[in-house]
């Protein structure tokens, strides 16, 4: 047996995710610089806090990370796995972000995609290897009966693998993405679909961000493997961290960014703000087209509104993501050439990641545009109402998980409907100040109902039963 007395010294709580809380970069002088990770998952899990006894197992993602592992550089409570670069690339770029991300967000252009060929099978073997490395590390580090919380689509096979190595553990898995509808999920080869579901069903408990994604998962289980069996399924809608955001957004660097942004926007103008990782599900291009439609169809807004769009590069190893960034830049440029005047830039687009500037934009936002094609939750929708100085109107896609919690006080859009989105922007910009403030207050309350620390504790308690 692989478990026994030796494990009593291990950790009682373990978390596993592809991206960890920090990543490293080798500087010119050879030293390593640490940088915080991004995305909803890291925001949620950072609540674990540095003083708990929990261990966070994550993957080395870059050469800097692998160098850090080799030099023994790291943070307390974090174990970074030195996965070979080619295995990680196949698992992360190939399977996780090209196949599973596309399936759950329904991003394929189906006349030509997907094609599950020999290359896919080769990458799948790496995905298995990568998942096994996590399962083995967790099996090594966990105390007898410990709780293990596995995160997201990168690690779907871990629960099943870990169950075999350590039947004594309480194993949970949480999905930060949507879950695909049955017919879409079944594009995957049957044996792969089965393996994914069986891998996840190795957990005692599975968590999703909304009831909708949990139900979709259950439907896939029923269709592919006869049902979810004894695995419990729960919903935990990760909320925004109000205390952190309010404090952080009033620091000096944010005030500086606000002054610079005000310069770019120009005095007396309204702002439509969006902040995203540039990623295909975020629907940034249709958002720009809707804004163009607003200026086209309602010329009274020309010179009076600015679209502040921050589109931060993401997963740039993949050509589709790079091409999408280029398309965002092209359309923004086109709008500025078509409508811009010497004193007015209709779209202020920034692509260089800057958290302080994001918070500055949140504070200045009159309208927040969150129009994803499909999104597990979308934390920006929850963060802007918390941070905005004068309250903001939220224009929100009905396909974002956040819509289940914020829909009543947002202006809802169909993300494919550019005219409808333009109308929604107009309605948002016209909303009387008093109603806007009321709605924004209710949005902020709903957005912070389940702060990250509580989100984590709830799952842990449910898993321990
Ligand atoms: C989503 C996923 C996370 C991921 C994040 C950032 O929120 O659910 O697992 O960490 O995107 O993406 P990246 O590929 O940069 O980790």
UniProtKB/TrEMBL annotation:
GO terms for molecular function: alpha,alpha-trehalose-phosphate synthase (UDP-forming) activity; trehalose-phosphatase activity. One of its GO terms (biological process) is trehalose biosynthetic process. Coiled coil: none annotated. This is Trehalose-6-phosphate synthase. GO terms for cellular component: cytosol. It comes from the Bacteria. InterPro entries: Glyco_trans_20 (IPR001830). Gene3D superfamilies: Glycogen Phosphorylase B (3.40.50.2000). Belongs to the glycosyltransferase 20 family.
